[in-house]
Amino acid sequence: MFPSDRIGAVQKQLEGAGIDGWLVYDFQKRNELAWDFLAIPPGRHLTRRFFYWIPCQGTPLKLVHEIEAGALDHLPGDKRIYLSWQSLEEALKELLKDSKKVAMEYSPRCAIPYISRVDGGTIDLVRECGVQVVSSSVFLQLYTSVLDERQALSLFEAGRMVEETVEGAWRWIAQCLEREQPITDFEVVQWIAGQFSMANFGSDNTMPHCAINDDSADPHFVPTREKAREINKGDFVLIDLWCKKKQAFAVYADITRAGVASATVPPRQQEIFDIVRQAQKSGTEFIKSCFADKKIVRGFEVDQVCRKVIEEAGYGKFFTHRTGHNITGELHGPGTHLDSLETYDDRPILAGTCCSCEPGIYLPGEFGMRLEYDLYITLQGDVRIIGGEQDTLRRLLK
Hints:
The protein is an alpha+beta fold. It has helices at residues 6-17, 32-38, 85-96, 120-127, 137-144, 149-178, 185-198, 267-292, 299-312; strands at residues 21-26, 50-55, 61-65, 78-82, 101-104, 132-135, 201-202, 209-212, 236-245, 253-260, 326-327, 354-357, 360-363, 367-370, 373-377, 383-386, 394-395.
């Protein structure tokens, strides 16, 4: 259901940003952010282009095709129906004739791909109406990434689930090693997925990761049945797992843990663990201090704080991905990412949102160390760690 107060809230955001209006557009669900914002039911079948215009002042307008004239009837505002492509273009020109600056799901130079959902041709069409197109990212995540109470509770439940499950996985691996019973990386991910399923948790057609020794130097290594690798005593093991409740509104929790199939930790692995853990703590404390001091903190800034720790330790070129990603009902959500490497995310981290914090060092031919938990910023600005913390490298044998 579309919230009754949403239009007024958006109009205040538009006025504050000096934007004449927000032109929400979609064709065949290519702009899923539009569907989220407009609260369009997931199962609705829409095949024609639609626009929803929210002016900074005044009444919204729905521009829909004659075949799907009722597509946006659940939304407030007037309606105009088009049939031909010529009538669509005429309607757009009329709609935007008094505007100069219009927001869309667009990112200049595709700087933040997660919000760049409107195709270049449609941007061209809108610009030909004599307006400047700017990014809706200034206010968009207020409506796509801030968690409500139900979602926050589901996040906490998922956090407990991934933490308990990874502990169970470590115990199972240890038991197999002690009994000299073979166990593979693929069997570990199958076991984790089974635990999730029995507890009514899951993920969207993706499997957890388990990587051994040099395989863990690939941040996205995925074990397979065909190339399953046995875990042996002395091996380094990295487990990455994520899940959410099997409910439409549920939010993911996503963590990564590291362990050694030994009673002692090799000095090289301990060194890298300590660096990565310090980077993770530094980024977390930076976010906490900014919210405590009521300062705006932007995604790229957190990434730079974590990256500096790793660079100063001499391993900067081995930290090959961003520090963290936004989390919603999508594992990689549309909100602010902790990133100054893959993108330059200058969006603020908002109260009510969740992101992962997962610095890593990946040494080709040796191993990769990543530590991950999630950070939920409450509406009051408190920062909660979801999924637990790992302060020592897990030793699987006594």
